[in-house]
Amino acid sequence: MEELRQLARRRLPRAVFDFIDGASDDELTLRWNQDDFNRLAWLPRVLRNVTKRDCSTAILGEVAALPLIVAPTGLAALVWAEADALLATAATSAKVPFTISTSSSVRMEAIRERAPDSRLWFQVYPYKDRDLVRALISRAKAIECQALVLTVDVPILGRRLRDQRNRFTVPLRPTSRLVWDLVRCPTWTRHILTYGVPRMQNFVDGKRSASVTSLAALMTSNMDAGVTWDAIDWIRQQWGGKLVLKGVLRPDDAEQAVRLGVDAVAVSNHGGRQLDGVTSSIEVLPQIVASIAGRAEVYLDGGIRRGSDIAKAIALGATAVMAGRAGLYGVGAGGRAGADRAFAILADELDRCLTLIGCNSAKQLDVSCLLKRE
Q1: Are 249 and 36 in contact (CB under 8 A)?
Q2: Which parts of the chain have pLDDT scores under 50?
Q3: Active site residue 270
Q4: Peptide bond into 171 cis (omega under 30)
Q5: What is this structure's pTM?
Q6: Distances (CA, A) of 111 to 85, 144, 154, 241, 352
Q7: Given 270, 312, 325, 341, which residue is catalytic?
Q8: With 0-12 CB in 10 A as exposed, 13-18 as middle and 19+ as buried, what is 173?
């Protein structure tokens, strides 16, 4: 995965790569997300017959080939033209769910057309404009999304210093560095000239200005610092299907979510892109699993870079993991082929990990397989 990341880094303008790779302020949480995985060591079992392995698991009642959900990533087409659709089709091939971002660069209806057999989920924020939220949810139902992912950890946007230093904006503004990158990155430049600057296509509905600037301002201005738990009930009424609450880091919040009827909780710090200095997701995962006690599924979001990371999360009680950057590194390195490669790497590494620690199935993983290093 690191090699895919470096390939993407070489291919993309610095401002675009830093947009997908970076996090807020000093990026402590971004590092902790990975460092805390690395503090978990394996305690392998030996002399086990591991000739046959099974990496599959049930996610919201349906079997997935891996305990993996492709996480929502906004404006992915900055990385590769129509990246959202490419990732959805790659997820279909990998037999795992794909989550459409509200700020996807491809309309959700077009993603369904491109990936008719994909197991699609849809991510939404509890925006101030409830008519907008209602309309997005209605469209997600119309294209038969199987779950709604409500992201609740963004009352305002975090401060991403890499973006500020690069003068990264949506749309991209001309700078001397950007001009140099246009020359240095010919494939990326050709995509932009051919397909245009990506827009948040799910907001384009004929009622609002379709300019890139207006759409970005619409999303930013709709972040709601006043939203409360009351929003959950309203969302459930609009949706009526499986509901995932993403952005939980405290056991008491997880318990409250379950009491309000969510089907799954995603333990997430938004990949370190919001408040810096927040605990890693993997550090608090066992507490949240214990607090929920099997009443809902638990997903781990943040820091997934290897298949062994997936195995560690499952061993600590997660039903599955959500990963966003892994797919972006793949598609950034090589389009659809790169996305396929990213998911294949995770699958191969997970299978190899199971074999070497003496497990026939991801379902056999538990905390006894791990030792925490200080």
Answers
A1: no
A2: none
A3: yes
A4: yes
A5: 0.94
A6: 5, 12, 25, 20, 32
A7: 270
A8: exposed
